[in-house]
User: Which sequence fits this backbone?
């Protein structure tokens, strides 16, 4: 919650800020404050939960959380299509514009798809997930298969392994040990162009997965690549993302790499966020320097 990171299902359900309805936070002076409540219908005062969500610990330490829960869907099926990256991207965009209601639309690079044992060939894999009532899921799955039949080779929807499949996709970046992990967020219409830029650096940018509907791509650089090459690649991809109107963030990297390249790409907190930081943490105790937060008294 402190990072505010979203997973593949943010398209259908939203990110962490959509589900946090209450929290306890320790402020810089040791004060414990409570924001929100224990029920959804709690609308009194400012929604401070959204302020602390995604603040990366710069405003306070989150010690307790209350989440809004949803019932598990009665049915959950995933359409799996293998093929060439460009064809799958075009098919995914067609499916998104067809008034279907997938909860996730994820494109996996050939190397990542192979590691997750979704394909044995050097092909990309598109995952489109539908969840809800049995009749609605069956209808949408069938419609999606018709739309994607020219994009590649599709397999039967997964039933029993559906949750395990998406769990593996979501947690894979966290299992890569000392890998460098980056994230680019762009207008969804510009994501295909950025993926083509990534593919031109296939020697060092071969493992990635992209949320087509959200315009977000996460890349995983395996350990063992020279730091100078890694920095050159990150600078190149950041330039491409910013040219397309997006942003580029380094989530995890070797300390030497992070000391030589800005993890946030020149992002600075707005004036109002600077003032909020000074009110809650006047001595700049929590995560000094993150988001370019500075002490106005210095």
Assistant:
């Amino acid at each position: 919650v402190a990072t505010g990171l979203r997973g593949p299902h943010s398209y259908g359900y939203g990110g962490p800020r959509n589900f946090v309805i209450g929290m306890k936070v320790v402020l810089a002076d040791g004060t414990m404050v409570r924001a929100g409540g224990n029920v959804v219908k709690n609308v009194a005062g400012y929604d401070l939960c959204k302020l602390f969500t995604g603040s990366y610990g710069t405003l306070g330490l989150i010690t307790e959380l209350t989440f809004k829960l949803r019932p598990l869907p009665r049915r959950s099926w995933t359409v799996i299509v293998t093929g060439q990256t460009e064809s799958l991207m075009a098919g995914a965009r067609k499916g998104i514009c067809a008034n279907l209601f997938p909860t996730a639309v994820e494109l996996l690079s050939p190397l990542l798809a192979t590691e997750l044992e979704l394909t044995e060939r050097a092909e990309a894999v598109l995952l489109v997930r539908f969840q809800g009532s049995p009749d609605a899921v069956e209808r949408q799955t069938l419609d999606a298969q018709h739309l994607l039949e020219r994009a590649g080779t599709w397999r039967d929807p997964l039933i029993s392994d559906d949750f395990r499949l998406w769990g593996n996709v979501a947690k894979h970046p966290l299992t890569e040990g000392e890998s460098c992990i980056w994230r680019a967020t762009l207008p969804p219409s510009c994501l295909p162009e950025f993926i083509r830029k990534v593919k031109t650096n296939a020697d060092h940018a071969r493992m990635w997965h992209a949320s087509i509907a959200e315009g977000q791509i996460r890349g995983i650089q395996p350990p063992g690549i020279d730091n100078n090459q890694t920095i050159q690649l990150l600078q190149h991809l950041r330039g491409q993302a910013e040219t397309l109107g997006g942003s580029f963030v380094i989530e995890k990297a070797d300390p030497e790499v992070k000391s030589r390249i800005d993890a946030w790409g020149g992002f600075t907190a707005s004036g109002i966020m600077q003032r909020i930081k000074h009110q809650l943490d006047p001595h700049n105790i929590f995560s000094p320097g993150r988001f370019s937060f500075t002490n106005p008294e210095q």
Notes: Residues 7 and 170 are 6 Å apart (CA to CA). The longest helix spans residues 227-243. DSSP finds ten helices and eleven strands in the chain.
